[in-house]
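Entry 12.
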Amino acid sequence: MSTRRSPSVPRLAAPSPGEKIAAALRRSPIYVDPSLASALPEADRRRLIARFRKVPVPVFVVLVPLVKGGTWSDDEQLATVVHDRLGRDGVYITFRESGDELGAREWGGDHQARDAAWAVSLDRAMDDAPLAARLTRIADLIISGTGTSEYKRISAEIDRRYRASGGRSAEPAAGKDGGPGLALPLGAGAAVAAAGVAGFLVWRRRRMAAVKRADGGLLLPRKVFATARRASEDQLREQASREVLAFGELLDRTDAPVSDERAGALMALALDAYQAAGKTLDAAAGVPDLAGVLVLVDQGRDALASAVAVAEGGAEIPPSPLCFFNPLHGDAASAVDWRALGTRRSLRVRCCRACARTVRDKETPDILMDRRDGRDVPYFEADPERSVWAETGYGQLRDDLVHRVLRGDLRRGTGG
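Predicted 3D structure (tokens):
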């Protein structure tokens, strides 16, 4: 007697995270990760959807946490994947990698969505606004077609106030997650208040610098680091080589007059940084050195951008350092007080928002490791006599990193 077997039913592969979001967007143009549900209540979502119907193109809002090493690590990756899975052109609004700021990308047209989102991020009046209000403002700017003009207006105002402050580089007091903490005690002196205002303007100018980076101008685009932190050592070496080459070509193309003494000094610094980056690349023995190449390129391009700005009669562009704990994390958007284990000295360092949150939670941030005497140690715990990166904190603890590399200090840090 033979036994008939039931034909096996093939199991369908589980949908990917991008496919799940796309499926949700086919039902509603707003997708909010469950962990963020309280940030945008249902009533707000209904009002936003009604507002989006007046936008001349489809609008999709995708609000999910962007976490290094997680499913979504940067906003460009998120928007690109979801657009591909959904298969519909339009405006895609997400959080930016830098925190809870909103960014927008558009496929299939140009309705100034990107500029509208940046205008909202730069607008002081929107700093404490609820998420729904910021999304509504972006939609209104797109509807009215004034996203670009509003961005330019706010940028010009920031530039005007920055120049009026004398271009001072005072740092704003760090607020929650590294935001500007401008609450001064009653009766604070005028000098303190002026420094606070100057620091606030520097912080705003750094936001504007992020826009210029995204535009592919003189500053190093921050998407470089979204790739670098996921790269293998060989891939990182290739990327560092490309960035040094691109920086050299940029220097060759720059013909701004540098007769002004300050512009000339900044251009000299840019050229020195380029030379230091090439020297470091040639001698690089591992990831810490390759990260140093990107730091030097970043410093050089900051100096070049400032040289051009000064030569054209403008103000210097405040340099934006990279994360102290790991430069491959990208922008150091936050300032924290930090003390290494086993030490008593507390340092004020700048780092990415993810590392800042980790430090404030009394946990260990994701630190760049160096290989020393056969074991992995945090790069800043390497012997400063053998590591220029440990000695300078990749330029955060000292402002003469370029000079030290050019005079030969790097050789101490390449022995492994």
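Annotation: Confidence is low (pLDDT under 50) at residues 1-6, 168-197. The beta strands are 30-32, 59-63, 90-95, 102-107, 173-174, 180-181, 334-338, 347-351, 369-372, 375-378.
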